[in-house]
Amino acid sequence: MLKKIRITLATVFFVGLTLLFLDFTGTLHLWLGWMARVQALEAILALNVAVVVGLVLLTLIFGRIYCSVICPLGVLQDIFGKLGMKAKKNRYTYSKEKKWLRHPVLVVFIVALLAGAGSLVQLLAPYSAFGRIMTMIFQPLYKLGNNVLASIAESIDSYAFYSVDVWMKSLPVLIIAIVTLAILFVLAWRNGRTYCNTICPVGTLLSFLSRFSLLKIRFDTEKCRNCSLCTKNCKAACIDFKNHRVDYSRCVVCGDCIESCKFGALKYTWNAQSPQTSPSSDSRRTFLLTTAMATTAALAQEAKHVDGGLADIIDKKAPERHTPLTPPGSLSAKNMAQHCTGCQLCVSECPNDVLRPNIDLMNLMQPTMSYERGYCRPECTRCSDVCPAGAIKPIDQIEKSSIQIGHAVVSPHHCISALGEAECGNCARHCPVGAIRMLPTDPDDDLSPSIPAVNEEACIGCGACEHLCPVRPLSAIHVEGHEVHKHI
C-alpha cells in the first residue's frame, strides 16, 4: 500500500511539473503552478513561510518523502533506476553515508547562494536541473510535435492546433542540460539515488530532519531471515540488513524494501512503537491524493512573418548591451542573482520569445532579455506569474507599464531615417508609452532628415522599438538595461 500511494502521488507531481514546463500556452499554470511553489529551495528563496513549515512538518512526520514524491528530479532518478532494475534485478548494495562529500557540497551551495554565485547554485539545485532538462531538450521536441499536429489540422481546415516557432534559446545551456541528463541517467541506472544522496543540497538539508521523523521503516528482527533482498532493492543504499539498521538520513520512503521482503520483516511504523506490537493497519499513514485537471484553450498566435514569402529577411542579432536586461518584477540584477535558481520556467513560459538563459559565467542560466524575436508587451505578466522563487515578484499589468527596466538608445549612423535613405519613424509609431519622437536633424530646417529622440524618463525598456526597427541585422535603436529598476 505504501509503495502504491507513493507511486500515485509521484506520478501526479512528475506529470504535472513536466506539463508545466512543456506548455507554451500558459493555460496549465492556473492549474499546476502550485506544484512549482512547493519545491523546497524555491519556497525558501521566496520566503514562502507556509510551504517551508509544511515541508518541515512533512519530513518530521513521514521522513524524506519529499524526495520521492514532490521533487521531479528525484522521480526522474527513480524512472532511470527502474530501467536499471529491469536490466539486472537485485543490483543494489549497502554503503555508508558519504558525509565527507555531502556536507561540504551543502556548505559550498549555501555560501554560493549567499554570495549570489548563481551559476554554481543552478548546477546543484535539483528543481533547476529538471527545469533545464525539460525546457532545453524536451520542450522543443514537444513544440515540433505540436507543429506536426497543426499541419495535419490545417490540411483538414481545423484550428485545434497552431504552429509555434522552435528555436535554440542557448547552445551552452542546451549542452549543460544534455550533460546533466546523461550524468543522472548513468548514476541512477547503475546505482539508484547516488546523486540524490551524495550531491543534492536539498536532500542533504532534509536528511538532518528525517533522522527524527515519527514514521520510519523499521526491522522486525524476529521475522528477518537475513536474505538481503531489502538491501539489494534499496536504491538509496541505506539498508544494512546484517545489523538490521536503516540510515534514515538517506531513506526516501519509497517502499521498495517492504515490497521485496518475503517475510514481512520491514514495516513503516511510528518511531515510538515497536514493530512487533503495533498493528500494521494502524501504524501506516496514508497520504492525501491531489489531482489536477488541466485544460488547454489557446488562441491562435499573432503572425510574426509578414513578408508574404517574397523577401529574404536577415535575422536580427542581439546588440552588445553594457547592462543586461532583467524582467519587470525582478527589482534589480542583485535581487535576480540572489533569488533565481535558473529553473527555466519563466523562459519556457514567455509567450513573446523575449526571455532566454544567460550565458554569462556569474549568472549562467538565469533569465535575461533580448528583443530579436519579440518584445516585452506591457500587458503580459507571465514570467512574474510563474516564478516560484521570488526572483520575479508578482506584478499586474498596470504596475508593469510603470516599471522602467532600461531605456532606448539610438544609433544615428544605422538609422535609415537619420541617414535620409527613407522616412521611417517605426520606433516612434509603435512605442507603447510615447517615449520616442521624430525630430529633424537640423533644428532650423523642418525638411531635414528626422531622427528618433528618446525621452529616457518615460521609456520603460519594453523593446518594441528595437524589435520593430527595420534595420538588420543590428537595430538602429536598442535598449540598455538598468541595474536597479524604478517606477516612473
Describe what you observe in this structure:
This protein is mostly helical and 488 residues long. It contains 21 helices and ten strands. The strands form five sheets. Strands 1-4 form a two-stranded antiparallel sheet. Helix 1 (2-22) crosses helix 2, helix 7 packs across helix 12 and helix 9 (126-155) crosses helix 10 (171-191). The longest helix has 30 residues, at 126-155. It starts with a helix and ends with a strand. Residues 272-310 have low confidence and may be disordered.
Descriptive key words:
488 residues, single chain, two-stranded antiparallel sheet
Radius of gyration: 27 Å
Question: What structural class do you assign from the helix and strand content?
Answer: mainly alpha
Number of strands: 10
What count of helical segments does DSSP give? 21
State the helical fraction: 40-55%
Strand content: 5-15%
Per the principal axes of the C-alpha atoms, what is the gross shape? Answer: elongated
Q: For the largest beta sheet, what order do the strands appear in spatially?
A: 1-4
Low-confidence stretches are 272-310
Mean pLDDT: 89
Largest sheet: 2 strands, antiparallel
Q: Could you give the distance between the termini? A: 58 Å
Provide a concise account of the structure shown.
By secondary structure, the protein is mainly alpha-helical. It is 42% helix and 10% strand. The chain has 21 helices and 10 strands.
Topology:
Elements: H1 2-22, H2 29-37, H3 40-45, H4 49-62, H5 65-70, H6 72-87, H7 99-115, H8 118-124, H9 126-155, H10 171-191, H11 194-198, H12 201-210, E1 215-219, H13 229-232, E2 239-240, E3 245-246, H14 256-260, E4 266-270, H15 280-283, H16 333-339, H17 345-349, E5 355-357, E6 367-369, H18 382-386, H19 397-400, E7 403-410, H20 426-430, E8 436-440, E9 450-454, H21 464-468, E10 477-487
